[in-house]
Amino acid sequence: MSMRIRTVYFCVPADQFEEVVGFWGRVLGVAPAQRSDAWCEFKVGEINLGLLPVIDNVAASESCVPVLEFSDDEIDAAIARSKRQGAVAIIEGRDHPDYPRTAAVMRDPWGYRFEMTNFHG
């Protein structure tokens, strides 16, 4: 199986987003590699450390979202396998920002979020 972790997102309160971005920039000693109003990513070796601003209170189960990448010939099976194990797709298909790539934001049976998508290069 070809798989890797591309990104790990921390969900942070929207009113603290700029403060948290500044903190991680100072800790890592680099500016964000990518940024928008909806997210921010720092390049840390082969993995992206991402920050997502959220408006509602962040439950502990939603404070970290790993993004798992799979090869094109394995992504559909990986999403299906997750669903068979009790995960539920929260965002999938045309609703996912990676569309037309195959991708899904999932919630496992315990409420933890994770994302599955194609390799991004």
List the helices and strands and how they pair.
Blueprint: E1 3-13, H1 17-28, E2 34-35, E3 40-44, E4 47-54, E5 64-70, H2 75-84, E6 88-92, E7 103-107, E8 113-118
Parallel strand pairs: 1-4, 5-8
Antiparallel strand pairs: 1-5, 2-3, 3-4, 6-7, 7-8
Structure description:
With 121 residues, the protein is of the alpha+beta class. Helix content is 18%, strand content 40%. The protein is built from two helices and eight strands, in the order βαββββαβββ. Strands 2-3-4-1-5-8-7-6 form an eight-stranded mixed sheet, with helices on one face. A hairpin with a 5-residue loop joins strand 7 and strand 8. The two termini are 17 Å apart.
Q: What labels describe this entry?
A:
121 residues, alpha+beta, 8-stranded mixed β-sheet, 2 helices, 40% strand, globular
